[in-house]
Amino acid sequence: VLRIDLRQTGKPISTNLIGVFFEDINYAADGGLYAELVQNRSFEYRPTARPDWTALTAWETVRRRGADGTVVVADAFPVHPNNPHYVVLETRAPGDGFGLRNRGFDGISVQAGNVYDFSLFGRQLFTGNRWGNSGVLEGPAEFEVRLEAPDGSVLASATVAVTGREWRKFHCTLTPARTEERAQLVLLSRTRGGVALDEISLFPRNTFKGRPNGLRADLAQTIADLKPRFVRFPGGCLVHGYGLNNLYRWPLAVGPVEQRRSQPNLWGYHQSMGLGYFEYFQFCEDIGAEPVPVVPAGVCCQNADHQGGTGQRGLPMEEMPAYVQEVLDLIEWANGPPDSRWGSVRAAAGHPEPFRLKYLAVGNEEHITPVFKERFRMIYEAVRRKHPEITVIGTVGPFHSGPDYEEGWRFADELRLPMVDEHYYVAPAWFWENLERYDRYDRARSKVYLGEYAAHDVGRRNTLRSALAEAAYLTALERNADVVLMASYAPLLGREGNTQWRPNLIYFTNTRVLRTVNYYVQQLFSLHAGDVYLRAECEDPRASAGEGIRPDDRLFLGTWDTQAEFDDLRVEAGDRVVWAEDFSKDRGPWEALSGDWQVVNGVLQQRSAATPARCLFNVPPGTTRFTLSLRARKLGG
Ligand code: AHR
């Protein structure tokens, strides 16, 4: 029986509760949401990401009958210093075709009748008379651009003519006659001579909302269908990278794509930055979500320089003033007038109106060390001074409890942070056992953004059990929406065959999008979000029928995250002690479900705090009602 008193005013539920967290993990950006079909389009892959990767990864030289020539990677006169590598393609004899082939991401999937926009940057180096005398340009360097099926048959073909000695962009369109899942892009030189080529690109015309340099329509729509109130981006650990040189620096992810600095990412592949800050903000606007960018707090991933050697865990203090300014510049880029320094960069990209940024997250899952605190404080205070209208979101470390968590909260109290970001990836049972977590939160402290969470079931699969646990937990978040203002499942996307992390909310291949059961939970809570939480009372019919608790029922006693020991556990009915346990035996009616337990001198001790301990109690025969009392001590501080 469920009783709800409809006269109560209730507690408002945050209007921004359900959002998404996008990180470039599992090929979520290049080869995923970003609609670019060419892999390694700017020849910037390098072995830092994978030992076998080179500037020519995903490319092959094509040399058909009678053809002769060479392809080499160069860096002498690049399109832009941020994009240093390009290829020099010298055709000595065009024959039946000399040039390059790109395999895309597991092939290039094209659909009959759709238009594909091809472009490249090129400049002529010398013409066919190179071995003659003058070096004077005799005419354009012509290329046939093709989409070919795996059997070599031509699906679409067009021509581009590269002219001039300066870098310029050249275009053509391709409309395949047949649908093909694993096509390849082929570029065949038709003239003798040498050309420099870079930023070789192929986009479907039908990107999400038809945006140039846009997003894959089906994937973007799947995210839009969640009606997320906000999007957190671009990470995750990706934000602080694997070393100070790998931090995600937002200014390098705006402006013309050929001028952005691509870099290896911490998840073991490459990020072109084609999906950069402009595209993230535009996507948020297109789907009616608040942008929640995350900037590095000036420290490496969890304060550890994985590149090794430098010993630096944070940006040197003398670099911090410039870095703080970089963070302030982001706010100007997003919200400043079009004639401001950074607002003009946004305007030049086609968005003179401000993006109306409200939130800024600083740091991700940091260890709350002095190195972190010093840098975070500088950034936070500067933003608060200059932009009190921006809600800064801090971090309380990688876990739901423990030293970083506690120190993170202490630090948040000290700075009076408006909001902190909590993260936890835990077993489904944890969610059930912690439904009251936020009931106990002090309302006077910082608000919570649950920026990353997911129920990790056995084998890290997306299961109904994990989805139900998340759903139950979301009801608890709604009940506590005066504390938890925002929440986002993590991670969002996983490319089948290229995942570094499971479970994810959405899986995809080049042609398919799979919405998981966990996706539908998020969608349910998002599309049917409540305005207010009404207190309800629930009566168990079994209890009202006088049955109470039955022998052999298994009652959950509690979870302990910190190492503890217990020396008294008793069950009383009225004045009568029906059962008491002094833990002199290894097993009794109690049962330790997890954790590592030992009985020492009549005391039940949890060996380590590494695994949260759960304890069940088997109800002894004859018990109908009981009071449970428990005496415990925390071990290890
Ligand atoms: O969501 C995957 C990763 O989990 C994130 O990058 C990181 O913040 C967390 O550890």
Automatic annotation (TrEMBL):
<comment type="similarity">
    <text>Belongs to the glycosyl hydrolase 51 family.</text>
</comment>
<keyword id="KW-0732">Signal</keyword>
<protein>
    <recommendedName>
        <fullName>non-reducing end alpha-L-arabinofuranosidase</fullName>
        <ecNumber>3.2.1.55</ecNumber>
    </recommendedName>
</protein>
<dbReference type="GO" id="GO:0046373">
    <property type="term" value="P:L-arabinose metabolic process"/>
</dbReference>
<keyword id="KW-0378">Hydrolase</keyword>
<dbReference type="GO" id="GO:0046556">
    <property type="term" value="F:alpha-L-arabinofuranosidase activity"/>
</dbReference>
